[in-house]
Specification:
about 290 residues, alpha/beta, seven-stranded mixed sheet, two-stranded antiparallel sheet, 11 helices, 9 strands, about 20% strand
């Protein structure tokens, strides 16, 4: 007997059900993205022809990817990419997957940028923050640093793919230890999760995001202390520092910036209404 070939509608339903049984949050959304990835369809073509049959190869590949996602491998590690600020970035196990919350950092940083400015992105990871700034503000240059050589390779490839390679340089550095020069804007999404909390995170994050990009040490503030203190030597007068933070860290991080001589300190919230970004302007006369 000829084996039945499933339609798009049937395959999608099966995928969503499989992921839901596996405890995947947003199972329907992830099942759709995997179907789109395998078949190349978009929403319009799906709704126009939901009973189109998949090829045997598409069906087998879709089931294989569903199995990986059901095992809590992040969707982005399966597809190898993630959208951020309207751009598509390559991602892998060596970098933190860009998250929508971090777009608040980029949007706030953009308000302080002008033509000719130089930007430093600490803990750059995939390069999504710095590259987005370079794409959205064409008359600036940037430096991205990270302690991970593999992360920098990913950032460099993203820079090439998005056409900013001539305006950016990548430096392997533990925060500032191999950096030089001065900057108009320093941005960072540093590790800020308390060590003891990491084991409580979703499996996708705990097992697949680089731990070095998550662990903010005992109180989650280790890197903020270093950045607030050391950034002064690399900041131009009246330059800006913009930092992504955990939802409960605004008061502590703002205090660190104040102690380091930063003024005009502000806290910005994300779309969920949670504290997400702290900014401050450097005044050498207050340091």
């Amino acid at each position: 007997m000829k084996e039945k070939i499933l339609t798009l509608r049937e395959m999608y339903k099966e995928g969503a059900d499989d992921l839901a049984r596996a405890g995947i949050r947003d199972a329907g959304t992830d099942a759709w993205y995997l179907l789109e990835y395998v078949t190349g369809i978009n929403r319009a073509s799906y709704y126009g022809s939901p009973d189109r049959e998949l090829s045997r190869e598409e069906e087998e590949r879709y089931r294989d990817l569903l199995k990986k996602r059901a095992g809590h491998l992040p969707l982005q590690h399966i597809t190898g990419e993630q959208a951020f600020m309207g751009f598509t970035f390559l991602v892998n196990e060596n970098v933190l997957i860009p998250r929508q919350d971090t777009e608040v950092l980029v949007e706030e940083a953009l308000t302080h940028l002008k033509s000719g400015m130089e930007v430093l992105d600490l803990c750059t990871g995939s390069g999504c923050i710095l590259i987005s700034l370079l794409k959205l503000c064409q008359e600036i240059t940037g430096t991205g640093s990270d302690i991970s050589e593999k992360a920098l390779e990913t950032a460099e490839e993203n820079g090439r793919r998005l056409g900013v390679e001539e305006r950016v340089k990548w430096v392997k550095s533990d925060l500032f230890d191999r950096l030089s020069g001065s900057y108009d804007l320093i941005v960072s999404n540093p590790p800020y999760i308390r060590t003891e909390v990491i084991e409580e995170l979703q499996e996708e994050v705990r097992l697949h995001d680089p731990r070095i990009a998550l662990d903010g040490r005992e109180d989650g503030l280790f890197f903020y202390r270093q950045i607030a203190r050391e950034s002064r030597k690399y900041m131009k007068q009246d330059g800006w520092l913009a930092l992504e933070i955990g939802h409960d860290q605004a008061e502590a991080v703002a205090g660190l910036l104040d102690d380091a001589g930063y003024t005009q300190i502000q806290v910005k919230k994300d779309l969920a209404g949670l504290d997400r970004v702290v900014t401050g302007r450097y005044n050498k006369n207050c340091a």
